[in-house]
What we know:
Layout: E1 7-8, E2 15-16, H1 24-28, H2 56-59, E3 68-72, H3 76-87, H4 93-101, H5 103-107, H6 112-116, E4 121-123, H7 128-134, H8 138-150, E5 158-160, H9 172-179, E6 183-185, H10 187-193, E7 200-207, H11 211-222, E8 228-235
Parallel strand pairs: 3-8, 4-7, 7-8
Antiparallel strand pairs: 1-2, 5-6
Helix pairs in contact: 4-8
Amino acid sequence: MDLLYPGVCHRCGEGIPGDRSLCEPCDLTLPSLRTPFCRKCGEEFEGRIEGDFECPNCRDLRFSFDFARPALPNHPALLGMIHELKYLRRIHFGVELGRLTARAFAEDPRLAEALEGKWPLIPVPLHRRRLVWRHFNQAEEIARSLGRHTGLPVCRALSRLRGTESQTRLSRAQRLKNLKGAFALSVSGRKFTAGNPPGAILVDDVFTTGATTNECARVLRRAGVQKVVVVTAMRG
Length: 236
């Protein structure tokens, strides 16, 4: 297959084998999340801060998830891949983004509990209309690749009951209102939560205000999941 359709690096255009979308030199130019960062939302901060801390944005907020861990900070190359995955339907980028997202598990000891406990990866769902238009759920594509790199199962535990207004230009308060009641357990989710499982990992492409993942986590927690953490490819 490589002879007929040789792969090329998304950044430099050099030929690469297999299902990769980045060559090794370009992969190394993408920085992982660096300390210090907010232990709640993963926002990086400049300067020297000793120990764990919560940023001013998170300090007075109550989330239904324990913490969100983006694998990488906001980076133009990564954002470009996410946009091309979502809006140009370059579904093969999901494989590379899942591989990059696995960095979070390798670099953050807080996720060891999830690895040891084999917590499921739960992709943030799309509404049916969006899914029909896009043909795939980008969060699910990332989760599937992430599962191959971490050995964790993927569970489509949530469904989206209604379409919502684009979140891009909304404030956090508007986003929370926009998303209220938008998610529910799927059939798989009801089976998963029946025994009050110890944990679950929500997976999405980008973490921004946390409004979407918080609403998803709220549904899971109310159903009996004891701990929910969020892992994304990038911090928005």
